[in-house]
Each structure stands twice: as C-alpha cells, then as structure tokens.
TrEMBL record:
Coiled coil: none annotated. This is Transport permease protein. The chain crosses the membrane at residues 32-52, 64-88, 108-133, 145-169, 175-195, 230-252. Keywords: Antibiotic resistance, Cell membrane, Membrane, Transmembrane, Transmembrane helix, Transport. Belongs to the ABC-2 integral membrane protein family. The lineage of its organism: Bacteria, Bacillati, Actinomycetota, Actinomycetes, Propionibacteriales. Pfam families: ABC2_membrane_3. It comes from the Bacteria. InterPro entries: ABC-2_transporter, ABC2_TM, ABC2_TM_bact-type, ABC_2_transport. It is a multi-pass membrane protein.
Length: 255
C-alpha cells in the first residue's frame, strides 16, 4: 500500500515567538493592570467628581472632556515607559538575546513581538477609555476621526520609540525601571494629567508642546473638538518619533 502524505503546517519563527511572548504577556498581572486597567480606572474616578462634569468657562468645556484624551496618552506612556523596557533589558541581561542570535530565530523577532504586544495593549486601553468616556460621562467621540487617528498613531510610535531607547541605554532591568520612572512623571505632566496643557501659563505651555506628549495632548484635543490637528503639533510628534527611533536603533545592544 502506498503511504498517504499528510501536509504539515509549519509555523514561522516570528509567529512562534509572538505566540510565546503573548502567553508570557498575559501572565503578567501587574503589567496588564497598569496598561489596561489603570487608565480606565483613573477615568472612572475622575468622572465621579461632580465638578469635573460641569462646564468650565476657562477651558470652554467640561474638565472630564479634557481628561479623556489625556488618559488615552497615559495608557501609551505607561506602555512605552513602564511595561516594555524592563522586559527587553531583562532578556539582554539574562543572555537570551545573545543565545537567540545563534539560532534561526533572530532577536529582532522578539523585539518586534514586544513592541507589537505593548502597542496593541496601549491601543486597547485607549479604546476602552474612549468607550467609558462616551457611555458613562457623555464625552463625545473624536469629531475629526482621521486627524485623531493620525495623531494617535504618531503618539504610539513616539511612545514605543522612547521605550526602545530606554531599553537600548539601560544595562539592567532594574535600571530600565528606574530610568523609565524618571521619565514617566514629566511625561504625565506634559500630557496634562495634573493640569490641562491649555490652562498652563503661556511660557510653560510653549515649552510643553515641544515635548512629544505635550504636542500629542494638544493634537488629540483639537481632533476631538472637530479640528484638524495643528501641523506644528503633528510635526513635533513625527520629529520625536523619528529621532527616538534612530537613536534606539543606533545604541541598541544585543548583549
């Protein structure tokens, strides 16, 4: 009798790495909380403050309307600065990247998987914030959807590039966490978490909008209100995304 050939479905190395990293990512309860749970939870807390749901003449809108785009940024900041760098530097510190370089699976596959998973988590958290804002607090969805999407994608790129740069420069996972924390709080401030960017003093506001998350805050606010984001803000975001990406690629070490 002749043997019947049964086709074997082979999984590409990159797909296998992505699946493995996804399983590990799901097991990190702390990471999942800070990336997926913290920004929506903070939005619920802020939205529960009665004065935040009232019209503010100084802002020209309710405070909660300002905080929805801000917490979209918080999700990306947490993902880029706190979730990804310790993992990547931990792999390098333990020699995993060096060992992978000797196999058919290249270390770049692991980096791509990490950036993809963390980017997807940040996007999901942002979508949850938008949904909670709309359903729970009657915050309008972005009226300029295309401009909002463009500004959002540039912000995702800049946040992940900043995380990749920290991963490139920090020799250990502990130091990556420390450096990420040092950058984390100024990033939250520039995003408008403690005070909306538009309510800051003029000089401070002019400085903040030159930073990636300050420019992102203004671009998302403008798109949410129905205006095309200012090209100056989009240009600042694009410039930061390019510079940070090039720097991360230039200084990244596999071992």
């Amino acid at each position: 009798m002749s043997a019947i050939a049964v086709p074997v479905r082979r999984t590409s190395p990159r797909t296998a790495v992505l699946r493995a990293e996804a399983r590990l990512f799901r097991r990190e309860a702390g990471t999942l909380f800070w990336t997926l749970g913290f920004p929506p939870l903070l939005l619920v807390i802020l939205g529960s403050i009665k004065s935040f749901r009232k019209f503010d003449p100084g802002l020209g809108m309710r405070v909660i309307d300002v905080y929805v785009p801000t917490l979209v940024l918080v999700a990306l900041i947490v993902t880029g600065l706190q979730a990804m760098p310790p993992v990547i530097t931990g792999y390098r510190e333990r020699g995993i990247l060096r060992r992978m370089s000797l196999t058919p699976v290249r270390p770049s596959a692991l980096l791509t998987a990490q950036m993809g998973l963390n980017g997807a988590a940040g996007v999901l958290s942002a979508l949850v914030c938008l949904a909670i804002g709309r359903l729970a607090f009657d915050v309008q969805l972005p009226k300029q959807a295309l401009g909002y999407t463009l500004a959002f994608l540039l912000t995702v790129t800049a946040a992940l590039a900043l995380g990749a740069l920290i991963s490139a420069l920090a020799p250990t996972a502990r130091l990556a966490t420390g450096v990420g924390m040092v950058v984390f709080f100024p990033s939250l401030f520039s995003a408008g978490l403690w005070a909306p960017v538009q309510s800051m003093p003029h000089t401070l506001r002019e400085i903040v909008v030159l930073l990636p998350f300050g420019a992102a805050s203004q671009a998302l606010q403008q798109a949410a209100a129905g205006h095309w984001p200012a090209w100056s803000h989009l240009g600042v975001l694009a410039a930061w995304a390019v510079v940070l990406s090039v720097a991360a690629a230039r200084w990244f070490r596999w071992e």
